[in-house]
Amino acid sequence: MIGEKALKKSGLLPETLWDIEHYKEVGLYFYLEATQDILPNGRVNVENHGEMIMLGSYSYLGLIGHPEINAAAKAAVDHYGTGTHGVRLLAGSLKLHNELEERIAKFKQTEAAITFSSGYVTNLATISSLLRKGDTVICDKLNHASIVDGCLLAMAKFVRFRHNDMDHLEKRLQEAGDNGRKLVIADSVFSMDGDIINLPEMVRLCRKYDAYLMIDEAHSIGVLGEGGHGIEEHFDMPPDSIDIKMGTLSKAIPSAGGYVAGNKELIQFLKHEARAFIFSAAIPPASAGAAKAAFDVIEAEPWRVKKLQENYAHFAGRLREAGFDLLYTETAIVPVVGVTTERTATLAKYCQDRGIFVQAIVSPVVPEGQARL
């Protein structure tokens, strides 16, 4: 008690970005639903909903439950146990971690690689550790939130260019001038739209203006290229086209974690300077074993990549024939635009009630008026 009245503490929680309780009340809330069983042929058993066709997954190649990957995860637990003795820099590194990083480097045709505990952390740690005051980071307007957050955490000047607009990127590079280093960052495949970055032109501009290039391949590994090796294979470009190759171990690769692949100097720097690597627990043995095996499976079973591309062409083609707006998707990410939040949530419930697992993606994740399945 101070004076005659107690000071009233303000509320702990800020105003939410969308009305969660409203959507629960009207029966349009379908988030955090728990899958009880992974079933064959792209189906799942969802708590309180029963068997559903899974169309909301980013397990692009259907490798969840693959017997060779499962066996590798079990073997890792049998050999190492369920955890590690600490952070990677100190007591937490396993031979398996080194083998996984060597496998990633081979898959992406680089000298070395580093793994992190998640894809989000990978971008946050890499971008914030590489940039300094006086540098400039230039990002596509629709880059993933983890890239944006990494740029905000860094001390560099942060600017954006219009989505996949190479003329605007060139203008931003010109504006940056010669003061400090320049880092251009883009998704390979954009997670809410499914379109592909114009890598050849981006590489040309980075070389013209002496800028470094970082590409987030979360949604292109296992998806793009004849063998699923990613965006460079898709465009038939040499492996040294990209300076910093980032990817995840949780999408086409059915595990957990993220990675950066590049030259030895870059990887050594990150292992000693990236705070999220230094101060985070190492990837568990089961996850490392599963991820390593998954890269082998992708190369041993290239038919999966071809089948994914055929499925996309059929699925997107039929939806477009039926009059749905799919934006500019070119990949396995297929947005079905419902425009308003209410309409899209209603459309999602219509599908869910008929055993189709899809989610409504609404503002602020996507712009107002562009809600989508």
Folded structure, characterized:
By secondary structure, the protein is α/β, with parallel strands linked by helices. It has two domains: 116 residues, Aspartate Aminotransferase, domain 1; 234 residues, Type I PLP-dependent aspartate aminotransferase-like (Major domain) (Aspartate Aminotransferase, domain 2, 3-Layer(aba) Sandwich). It is 39% helix and 15% strand. It is built from 14 helices and 13 strands. The chain has a seven-stranded mixed beta sheet with strand order 4-10-9-8-7-5-6, sandwiched between helices. Helix 6 links the parallel strand 5 and strand 6. Helix 7 packs parallel to helix 8. The longest helix is centred in the C-terminal third of the chain and has 19 residues. The protein is globular.
